[in-house]
Design a protein that fits this description.
9-stranded mixed sheet; alpha/beta; 3-stranded mixed sheet; Rossmann fold; 530 residues
């Protein structure tokens, strides 16, 4: 028979994912994570391992393989060695009843650990891979443990609760009534918290890491989304804790999630790390992008930053730009989201269209509203009696820029946009929450210098935005590292020049070197007209 017909793939590489929130981990990624651990652990019959969110059992299975090989000399009898490993060294908590069955099948070769088919016989069907149906703890329609929405997950008794045992326990320390040396996992990523008309989600992977730290294992290794590095809903405290944690000794960071999870797109990428409880120090960072792999050894926190900056070049550029501590950040002249109280779907709501006579026609008794209609940016006119929050900016010139657009951070190809083209908004114009509003100007000349042909269009500007932008979404804080320039006639920048020439002036002003300039020029695309 031809050898090509004998190919027998690992079944765990062929499974479809449950969802983008509960992603199966391929065996090759699991083994890369296990490679981060001191390999002496797999030669020690007392080492204990826990996967607190097992889905396929792949972590436990691959750990078992290494232990079976590593303990040959200490426990020569193969069956005794297998019995010892499965009963005393590897443990798992399944996230659902189904994944419990799947995990036991892949680890014990039987969905029931006390079956005649199990490679090691337990006294009960679960063995050391258990699933317990746990309930959420509801307070004011939210779970106080994970933040899930009562309306979304208060479900029939025969449905999964998604109240994961590991993060819904009163006493974390009594899991299996033992202490673990290694906690390793790919935890669930998020749960619906009931906001955003059913589209809002609260991250929960941070809770798995928080509980894992409480158990004080020697090592923690988890693979999670990278959004925590600069933003992410409800992740501010987690990010602060992570970047200040000097026990995180290795970090592999992937801009493209498909390098780890084939066919799965996770905005902002994914990462996995190794935390060493007993040996703090600098972190060995591996940055994986389309440009290849970069390596560095540094702390996750740079200076006074409250985020983790993924690229070494961006750290260098940011530090040169902000060498002068006396300059102001553009963030300080960006107004809060929904500053006029007008929702994103205002122009698509048929009741609003009728009630406020929304149309394309400009009349004296109407106010202009920039927003989205059928996913296209438009300017419509509505009666002034529309439910609009009054603001002094209604009568000012300002710049509007889409809150959500393009890609995340700039570690990818230059063809990927960072920001949409801005809009110059004149007096008697407002916007829906689709846009962020920059500045409050008294005249057109002052405003246009931050407008189309000028600052936002420069690659310099968008590179600094890209430091904190990892997904499509932005907030005013995303613009923190962009310095305000002098936009008047006596400026140190000649705004009458072409965009490329203005970029050159900005590079020179902040003393960027050839390598830093090449990085910006190669990673930031030209602005796309809309």
């Amino acid at each position: 028979m031809n050898n090509i017909n004998k190919y027998n793939p690992d079944v765990l590489t062929c499974l479809a994912n449950l969802s983008n929130d509960e992603v199966f981990t391929p065996p090759n990624v699991v083994n890369k994570m296990l490679d981060l651990l001191p390999q002496e652990l797999f030669k020690d019959p007392s080492t204990t391992f826990l996967d607190p969110a097992t889905k396929t059992g792949v972590f436990l299975r691959e750990i078992a393989k290494r232990l079976i090989d590593g303990l040959k000399d200490k426990i020569p009898d193969e069956q005794k060695r297998i019995d010892h490993i499965f009963k005393n060294q590897i443990f798992g908590i399944a996230i659902t009843e189904l994944t419990g069955l799947l995990s036991r099948r892949s680890v014990y070769c039987s969905k029931e650990a006390n079956s005649n088919f199990s490679i090691t016989r337990f006294n009960d069907k679960n063995g050391n891979i258990r699933y317990k149906k746990v309930l959420h703890s509801w307070v004011n329609n939210k779970c106080i443990c994970c933040g899930a929405s009562y309306d979304e997950l208060n479900r029939d008794a025969d449905l999964e609760t998604h109240a994961y045992e590991f993060i819904h326990r009163k006493n974390e320390e009594d899991i299996f009534n033992m202490k673990f040396d290694v906690i390793i996992s790919n935890p669930p990523y998020q749960l619906n918290d009931g906001g955003g008309m059913g589209s809002s989600a609260k991250p929960i992977y941070n809770l798995f890491i928080k509980i894992a730290k409480k158990l004080k294992p020697r090592y923690i290794s988890m693979i999670i989304p990278s959004r925590w590095m600069t933003g992410g809903k409800g992740l501010d405290d987690f990010r602060k804790e992570m970047i200040n944690d000097k026990h995180i000794r290795v970090l592999h960071d992937f801009s493209n999630s498909e390098e780890c999870f084939s066919g799965v797109t996770i905005k902002g990428g994914v990462c996995y790390f190794l935390r060493d409880e007993h040996n703090p120090g600098k972190c060995h960072i591996f940055r994986h992008t389309v440009d290849g792999q970069q390596e560095s050894i540094r702390y996750l926190k740079d200076g006074d930053d409250d985020i983790y900056i993924r690229d070494e070049q961006l750290i260098s550029i940011k530090n040169k730009v902000w060498k002068n501590k006396n300059q102001d950040s553009l963030m300080n002249i960006i107004f809060s989201r929904k500053s006029y109280g007008v929702s994103s779907n205002f122009l698509n709501d048929s009741s609003n269209i009728k009630k406020y006579s929304i149309s394309d026609v400009q009349e004296d008794n109407k106010i202009a509203i920039w927003g989205l209609q059928d996913l296209k940016r438009v300017k419509k006119y509505a009666n002034k009696n529309a439910n609009i929050t009054q603001s002094d900016n209604i009568n000012k010139y300002k710049v509007l820029i889409a809150k959500a657009y393009g890609c995340g951070e700039i570690g990818e190809a230059a063809s990927t946009p960072i920001l949409s083209t801005p809009i110059l908004s004149t007096p008697n114009e407002i916007c829906t929450e689709t846009f962020l509003e920059i500045g409050s100007f008294d005249n057109w000349i002052e405003a246009r210098n931050i407008y189309i042909y000028i600052y936002i269009y420069t690659k310099f500007f968008r590179a600094l935005v890209g430091i904190k932008k990892q997904t499509q979404n932005t907030s005013k804080s995303t613009y923190e590292y962009v310095p305000i320039q002098n936009f008047k006639n006596n400026s140190d920048i000649d705004w009458s020049k072409s965009i490329s020439e203005i970029d050159k002036q900005l590079y020179k002003k902040y003393g960027l070197d050839k390598q830093e300039i090449e990085f910006i020029e190669s990673h930031i695309s030209e602005m796309r007209e809309e």
